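Exercise: predict the fold of this chain.
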Amino acid sequence: MRAHELEDGAPGTLVPYGRRPYYRPDPLPPAEGLALDDDFFELLAEATFWLGKLAGISLELDFPPVLYTSLLRKEAMESAEIEGADIDYNALYSLETRRLDQRDEAATAPVTGHASTKDTQEVLNYEQAVRDGIDTLEGGGELSVALLHDLHETLLTDVPDERVETETIGAYKTVPNHLGDFLPPVPGAVEGLMDALVTYYRTGGSYHTLVDIALFHYQFETIHPYGDGNGRLGRLLITLQLYDGGLLERPTLYLSEYFNRNKVAYVERMEAVRFRGDWERWLSFFVTGVAQQAEESVERTLALDALRRRYEREYGGSQYATNRLACSLFEHPYVTTKTVADALDIERSTAYRAVGALEDEGVLEEMTGNDRNREYRAREIFEILERPPQTY
């Protein structure tokens, strides 16, 4: 980035640094103010409406953990995919199921196979970091630099070396990180910029909560305070801030799906802010994503709830192992005969027959193709979880 590339409205300056100057963003809020028109406020109202509907559903539905776990997992998977990870629901649930299989075994050999690919740890770390962040907020804590460091450490712990581009985990970067031709603030400038950003958020910001979260996300990604993991942590913080602001009751908004499907626009809109101060197009892009993904999450949640109710009508009210298994799939949608036997406290042979009956009925489908150590998933549940966006 060269000085002549910055227009007069750019919310930052280039600071000399060796052969290439670094970009130092101005503190929030934008000095020139925001030119938000009626169309934007209609969009903001739509996003708020769908977030409210999602929050209401989260409170009203007596829904088992698969919903919240799976939608949080979808966010974690989409976020990791943006960074080049290659993972899917099957691998993650298979990994968990195999660990359950081994839990009571005397031998605890490492889990192997397609379930333990090198990218699974990134997704599981993301899920854990979201849970840790929400636990902190629920416990009376607040978004702070210390919390960010803790979340960063969680995100990168035990991730294979080839997937991590820094030796500094749980602390700000110690060497500059280049993003193509763009050089974010260098290590010596990061602490002051981040202190100012966190202070802006903690003092309530200057605009509607969604607008301030969008401003925060831009500023965080522009500062790029860590040696690696900035994208993952920045997207994770959106979820925490929505929760902290009372706009989410549970982490069921997977905004990374929208970013993942609009990668080029995501980068271009932030660059347009850096070069020209085009805040309005970035804000419209961000709030559009919130509205679309909140609606998408509502539709997916309702579809899962409708399926659960159908299973309760068809299989509820009976203590037959097959019926109990069908209704338990919303707790554990990926199973083996051993996990079924353990969960339902039945003989392995009974579990085998129950699994076979539901496979014949199309409720379960076998995933390995093996003659032994077979794994099954709840077909219709996963069809809902894996379907592409329906609202855009």
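Check your answer against the key: The mean pLDDT is 90.
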